[in-house]
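Reopening this one. Same input as before:
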Amino acid sequence: MEDPSSKEDNTGVLEVLEALKQASHELQAHPTRNPAHSDSPAIKALLELETQSDSVLSKDPHLSTLSRYVADLKTLVETLEKTRGHGLRSFLARRVSSHSISRVAGSIESEIQAWMDRESIERLLKGLKEPWKDEDEDEDKLIRLLTQFEDRVSQGFDRELQNLVLKWKAFSVLQTVLCEPKCPNRIRENAAFVVAALVRFNKDVFVGQVNMGDTIHALLEMKSTHSLKVLCELITLTKSPFVDEILCNEEVSKILTLLESKDLDMRVMALDCILEIGYFGRKEAIEEMLKRGLIKKLVELQRSEFGGDLIEMGKFEDDNQETEGKKRERREYKFLKNHPFASCVARFAVQLEVGEGLRQREKRAFKQEILEKVKEASVNDAEAATIIAEVLWGSSP
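Same output, byte for byte:
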């Protein structure tokens, strides 16, 4: 159990560090306000915090460097005060001091962020490694930590943060939680979001750490729109190898089955996954989907109340008038929002045509196969003719 006094100490440290970070950021963000002058609000805030932070920072060895930077800042400001004058030497000395102050402020901000990242990862991993509890409060707290860490990772690449993640083996812990069926689904879903965020953060480093088979199985086993969203994103990020793994683990049928879900959002996310597989999938993956009746399912979705045809809106016409093109795009976007399965057969065919997974002759062969299966699945000649026209106009001959 966490010591309440320790928690209180951490809260106090965090408040001081947040204030220091904000003042340091202001010092760098508004150079036009002459922040390096000793009467600048940012300088005043930093100097006021210097006395308060001295006792706080000394308690944590990880903050010793930060404490030194804050002391250096005070010295630089005192030096700046002594160089007030109108001569060239005073002017140059002020410029040097101002630059040094801005640089130290940047170092202060970086050190604070590193401490916060370290604390965040430590608290998160401690929570994830504890036995799962039934208390909603504990679950909500862990989800908040996962969401905060996902937001931090989503801010963009940071080498120090990456080193912390690798040092603490955070990725493998998150993936273990994602694949643990005894863990509450809400926690698993949020762990999945963080896994995807880390792959986005640095694909070269973290793609290799994805246990693709277990991850795919876990995401599909949860059967939620959130887990499908992560699956779809991982397909986009890792491309053909991830699709190959879906095929090897015989998970294609599970995705196709979700097209028949009673939940509309689930069907929409399943279609998104299929479209991504169509773009990145190799011949074997496309063959498997077609063999398992994908085109028939898509025709049925297109025929449903949430389907329809985009062909009449001129989706596939060649129009050089940019303004008319934009108007059409807006109409299509509005239509697709209310009819997510509109022209889904042609949209799938286009994904194959423009995608990365197939050779040109394979694309032609699959196009012909799709046209044949459309004829088989259509209820009448008119329906078949409309869908076939969309497929032909939507991709090159």
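So the earlier flakiness isn't reproducible anymore. For the record, The chain is about 75% helix and 0% strand.
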